[in-house]
Amino acid sequence: MYDHNNGQVVIVGGGIAGLATAKLLSENNFHFAIVERSYKLGGHTKDWACMATDNCNRCHSCAVFDYEEFVASSPHGEIFLRHELFSVTRSTSGISSVGIRCIDSGAERELPVTALVLAVGFEPFDPIEKGFWGYGTFEGVMTLSDLNRLMRLDDLNTIRPGNGDPLNLAFFQCVGSRDKTIGADYCSQYCCAAAIRAALRTIHQYPDSKVTIFYIDLQIAGKTAQALMDKAQEKGVRFLQGVPGEIQPIQDGGLQVISEKDGQNVVERFDRIVLSIGQRPSSSAIAISGITEAPLNEFGFFQTRSQFDPVRSPLNGVYIAGSCSGPANIPDVAMNAGKVVSAIIKDIEQTI
Amino acid sequence: MNSGSLAGSYETMNLIKNATGQNDVDICVTCGQCVSRCFLSQSYPDINPRKIIRKILLGREQEVIDSEFIWACTLCGRCTTDCPKNISMDVVIRRLRGLAWAQGKAPSRLCEGIEKIKEFGNNTGVDAEEFQETAEWIAEECEDELQEIFEGASNVPFDRKGAEILYMPNPREYTSNPNMFQAYLKFFAHVRADWTLSSKVFDVTNWPYYLGDQDDAVALVRATVNEARNLGAKILLTTECGHGFKILRKDTQAWLGESIDFEVLSIIELAHRYFKEGRLRLRQGAINKTVTYHDPCNVGRKVGIFEGPRELLKFISANFVEMWPNRKYSICCGGGGSVSQNSDMGSKRLEHAMWKRDQILRTGADILTTSCQNCLTQLGDMQSRYNMPVEIKSVMELVVEAIEPLSLP
Amino acid sequence: MLNLHKNNSLSCTVPNQSALVVGNGLTASMVVAAINSVGLDVTHARFGSNSSTLFHSCDNESFITFLDQLIEQLPTVEGPQGGPTEIVPCENGFLVTFDSGESHEFGSVFLAIEGTLKPAPKDLPAEVTTITPDRPTASVVSSVCFLLDYKEITNPSIGAHSIRVALENQIAGGHSFVLLRQTPVKGLLGETLYEAARLAGVRFLRYGTKLPKIERLSTPIESSARFKVSVADIIESGEEISFDCDCVFVGANPIIERLPDGFRNLLSEETDQQGFLIQDSVHCLTGKSFHKGVYCVGPSSGCVDLFETMMTAASAAVDAAAWLNFANAPQSEEKMSVTEQCIRCLTCIRLCPHSAITLNAEASRSNVKVSTVRCVECGICVAECPRTALDLNNFLEDSFSSLIDRLKTETSEDTIVVFGCYRSAGRAISEINLPGNVIFFPVSCAGRLSESILSATLATRVKGILILGCHHGNCRSNNGTDWARVRLANMSKRLGSLFGKVGVISYKTLAPNESARMLRLINNFSSSAFGISD
Ligand code: SF4
Ligand code: SF4
Ligand code: SF4
Ligand code: SF4
User: Fold this and answer.
1) Which residues contact A221 (CB under 8 A, 6 or more apart)?
2) What domains are there in chain C, each with its CATH number?
3) Which chain A residues are within 8 Å of B44, Cβ to Cβ?
4) Sequence ranges of the domains in chain A
5) Does a structural domain hold residue B117?
6) What pLDDT, in 10s, does the model give residues A293-306?
7) Which residue among A218, A274, A299, A330 is best mutated to probe the pocket of ligand 2, counting the most ligand atoms within 8 A of its Cβ?
8) What's the confidence (pLDDT) of residue C334?
9) Residue B8 has pLDDT above 70, yes or no
10) What value of ipTM does the predicted structure carry?
11) Which of A339, B105, B130, B349 could join B100 in a cystine, given CB atoms 3.0 to 4.6 angstroms apart?
């Protein structure tokens, strides 16, 4: 039987990656300390809405509540909200302690470290960079996060047309992903499935809604992919290849786009357009990379040792959890946490 | 359903790739952005930029080569502004035009122009002597005004070695539109520019570029560059021109494979620079009207000049309004890329320009400015065709109107 | 290391730190390695084929290095051949019986078998074969076409494998074509492969809803092209391309192999229509089944790729270590009390989704025994026990009695009772303020609400009862919500006449992040209970 009760793992970031890592660590007799910038645990996942249509559609966003409850009540851990990392002290085998600072009071403290886990997550792409879509300019253009916020607040009715007409909603996929011009030539992994779920959820609440998903290259391969696609087709979600590059507001308050259907350029009108925004590296990645010297890759995500060792930083004693090593969806992040903990256990056993 | 062949597809694909060193069309992810940004999408409902790429990939490029669309395209590049794979549609279309031209399918007016260029060095057929005479005659027409600025300002300088600026006009200035030339003369006089014209090279335009005739396009650039070197100019200054300026500014080094030791500037950039330096003094709010600005595709989207002209216009006009969309996302006037020179396109180019027309009308401006002679022609034609209640001027014309004469020391 | 049990007794001792891995391919190897890294003892029972549907036998350099390292690390302890015929949960682990008849006890068991490939779709020419680990060599074959996403989304592993082989063939001087609907790129890993193949000259032809046509050329001449392939372009504008090629492979997805009997019986409630195991993924996301200590990794859990298998293996191993840690720790208190009322009808044993209940073998007592480490306190058994012999110590039946007493005295005309699962409604409620006439009562699971509790509550003349369970498929006990629905349906049949006179009862599902919706559901229910339709 192994026993690592003398070890403390410091986790930077209290989102789903940090929480999942902390839970598994704690269950394996580790102490953990979570250092989180914001006022709350749970990160982006906490803001996402349930996508169930009476049946759970496996969006996994509610998983964060179980994690949070476990972590917050764990006797093996400490949680530092509104704190940030500002220094690391190195030892021969890795990192021996880190300095953290309270963002509000400036109070500093030193935490001993057996392993340092970076779980700083991602930054949602800000579509204001893409002027053609008029996000921030046209009222009807929103992001997938905005739509989730509406659903979370049960305010989906606010986007229905006032005159009682059915809602005509469109999703634009790959906004800020798979795009060389902004240094994001990668797939963000979560948005295709998220958009399909949101479409199903909308139709479930308002069955007369018409939903079109404009996509480039649906990336929903995996366990639940076919079932999700079948369901979408059954519910009449329309899939159109090609994402309109420009949105024009029109007189009646709707939005007009040009797309190609059966070889013809056609003009279509929608009430709302949802931009499925991609994941970009966390805004704190550069600073944390500077403090810890954990290197970043060409996209600005934390580099890992190899494609098949996706949780260890090239820097000894530092582990990369969740979407700060590359875009990921919730179940992938949670699985990745398992890999992180297994790597920590293994490395510690080897040094003993 | 029509079928294509793979062999042809490889050939054209590679041609496009090799000619440009980029535009690996095979990389297109059919994202579809370009479909909706082309202002021709409604005029040609069964073709669009993406489809052109797909046809090439599927070995059916001949259909595109034979289509009118490649000649209606203004090479504005708006469709692929944000192409996630960095494909430039204007480059692709120019290659296709090159293929059409080689097959003898290029519009006759453009072919004639090319012949003239080969003979005279410019597309109008004006020779050196004629050019010199015309330029002097145009200057005489406004001699009084020029002389008022300073004694001797009406003398047009030719082939002055060592002059700081070599000025490259657009043939329109010494044929159909001499008042533009006069405006520039006044500008030069006011800022006391150290400038010259060349009697050998006096055409900024580059028609072979339009035709995808790369060899002749490069030859023209080389001639211009050689002349600038020969005269020892520090600044190669182009008139308010779109494609000619863009080529000299952006493509010269890559095309010639050598670096150049002078600056290439558009006259609006120079005006803006002098304005910032205080060398060009303007009367604030001198133009007591509502003014708007059309970003020419080449000057704006392709070269990236957005703020200079706006700063000048905002300063001299009582009220400046923007069109939407603007800057990088500006809608093409519909006359670029040889379309307004190509008589085959006739009035179609005006019918294609609805997006632009509506956009202009929405601003409610009194004066519509731009800084490309090609756009000016097109906008002027649109104005008469659609009775648009705006006055059309170049930025420099308006700037010259607002100049406050330097008090001589 | 292993405790060999000669008898089939259901009571067993602590199985310490051992895990059983059942499978024969790369998945099993990865699981063995993962378990070993977290310090558990591994027994590897070889079962099923080793022709991994993941097609790992490729020349990708880093991949080969990775596999070498993996194999190197393996401390495999060979176990009995063949799959378990019986897996019986016991106190802190499982008693597993093998083909040979021998039984061993393990702390956790891992299902890590490979899948088999479906046959090639019938409407393709017979010569079109499915993509398998072996690939054509360029010396024989000059142009190869891979047909992916034909009628169903191709498994990402098979997609990636096809691209790899296409790339090899291209490099070796052949021509490769990949026909697909969506690029199988998973993460930066996949995108690199795709790009390498594209740059090497592999032609990717994407098609849309119109499927490609593959025709066997009718007059094949020796060593000439054998197939004519026609593909309509993805943009569906009527453009089509056709070309000839020497051979065509179609990507068929893996289906689950026959499970060893032991797993089939244990997990019978937990498979989906395709036969893939439904994992308890909402709660733990580690390849866990609803049976604590049972994990499914790799193709048996569904359409997964190599990378995902590796990750699942690691996190399942970590979770197993945690489970054994927990199972072996001293448990402070019993979760359930069982009274002498028990008549050993076995209802609870049959219904417990977590296999927490076994017969009590202690001679002095003739009832059932509830495993403290397995029980999650949902109370489905409590609600269904015909003799009310069971009670949850932390969620006492008495609390309902007190509620009902309270309702009897305090109920006013407009009182509404909301029973909500503490996991969903119980959390969501923290963000909202309930109207004054609403009494919220958190329950351990919607499946805990027995018909008798509901009838007794109705009988207090409350205006209405709203049950808020978790969404179907997100119940921690797999089917607690379904129980609530079934009981309600039964009641409305039996008490049909009562409804409407006494009060109304309704049932809805909820997630913890649906506070706002919860409020709306309650308000809507209130208004409908008072005859106001919304
Ligand atoms: S996983 Fe998602 S869809 Fe399912 S219950 Fe949770 S939040 Fe709702
Ligand atoms: S998941 Fe879908 S929408 Fe998101 S980047 Fe990938 S392909 Fe685009
Ligand atoms: S914008 Fe670029 S990638 Fe997108 S369809 Fe057009 S050419 Fe292809
Ligand atoms: S006209 Fe402009 S937008 Fe249209 S294809 Fe040509 S370059 Fe693209």
Assistant:
1) C153, C154, C155, C156, C159, C182, C184, C186, C303, C305
2) 10-116+255-327 (3.50.50.60), 129-250 (3.50.50.60), 336-392 (3.30.70.20), 397-529 (3.40.50)
3) 265
4) 4-121+282-351, 125-278
5) no
6) 999 998 999 999 98
7) A218
8) 83
9) no
10) 0.92
11) B105
Residues B89 and B155 in one domain: no
Structure confidence by residue, pLDDT tens digits, B158-211:
999 999 999 999 988 888 888 999 999 999 999 999 999 998 888 899 988 998
Asked if the domains at A4-121+282-351 and A125-278 fall in one CATH topology, the answer is: yes
Q: What parts of chain C have a pLDDT lower than 50?
A: 1-14, 57, 138, 500-502, 532-534
The DSSP 8-state label assigned to residue A133 in this structure reads G
Same structural domain for residues B178 and B83? Answer: no
- Tell me which of C282, C424, C427, C515 to substitute to probe ligand 1's pocket, judged by most ligand atoms within 8 Å of the beta carbon: C282
C-alpha A99/C-alpha A292 separation (Å) is: 11
Separation between Cα atoms, residue B354 and residue B357, nearest integer Å: 5
Closest chain A residue to C485 measured between Cα atoms? A54
> Does the beta-carbon distance from C235 to B51 stay under 8 Å?
yes
CA angle B219, B220, B225 (to 5 degrees): 95
pLDDT of residue B324: 86
The answer, yes or no, to whether residue B134 has pLDDT greater than 80, is: yes
Enter the tokens of residue C324.
């054994």
The predicted-structure confidence for B226-252, as pLDDT tens digits, reads as follows 999 999 999 999 999 989 999 999 999
Burial C502-522 (b: 16+ CB within 10 A, else e): bbbbebbbbbbbbbbbbbebb
Q: Is the confidence at residue A66, as pLDDT, over 60?
A: yes
* Whole-number Å distance between alpha carbons of B306 and B320: 14
Are B268 and B144 part of one and the same domain?
yes
Same domain, B299 and B380: yes
- Report the pLDDT value the prediction gives residue C234, as an integer from 0 to 100: 86
| Interchain proximity A221–C153, CB inside 8 Å | yes
> C262 and C84 in contact (C-beta within 8 Å)?
yes
pLDDT at res. C25: 81
Q: Do strands C108-111 and C103-106 pair parallel, antiparallel, or not at all (unpaired)?
A: unpaired
pLDDT for res A109: 94
pLDDT digits (tens, 9 = 90+) for A261-298: 888 899 999 999 999 999 999 999 999 999 999 999 98
Q: Are residues B179 and B382 in contact, defined by beta-carbon separation less than 8 angstroms?
A: no
C103: left (phi over 0), alpha (psi -120 to 50) or beta: beta
- Domain encompassing residue B81: 3-102
- B154 and B197 fall within a common domain: yes
Nearest chain B residue to C203, by CA:
B26
The CA distance from B89 to B37, in Å, is 12
Q: Is residue B84 domain-resident?
A: yes
B345 falls within a domain:
yes
CATH of A125-278, picked from 3.40.50.1820, 3.50.50.60, 3.30.200.20, 2.60.40.3780, is 3.50.50.60
| pLDDT the model gives residue A77 | 92
The confidence score (pLDDT) of residue C1 equals 29
Residue A340 burial (10 A CB sphere; 0-12, 13-18, 19+): buried
> What pLDDT, on a 0 to 100 scale, did the predictor assign at position B356?
92
Question: Beta C504-510 vs B195-196: how paired, if at all?
Answer: unpaired
| CATH number of the structural domain A4-121+282-351 | 3.50.50.60
If residue B62 lies in a helix (H) or strand (E), which one and from where to where? helix B61-65
Kindly give the number of the ligand 4 atom that is closest to the alpha carbon of B49: 5
In angstroms, rounded to a whole number, what is the distance separating the alpha carbons of residues B250 and B303?
Answer: 7
Q: Has residue B115 been placed in a domain?
A: no
Sort C292 into a burial class: Cβ within 10 Å, 0-12 / 13-18 / 19+: buried
Q: For chain A, state the CA radius of gyration.
A: 22
- pTM of the predicted model, to two decimals? 0.91
Alpha carbon of B77 to ligand 4 centroid (Å): 5
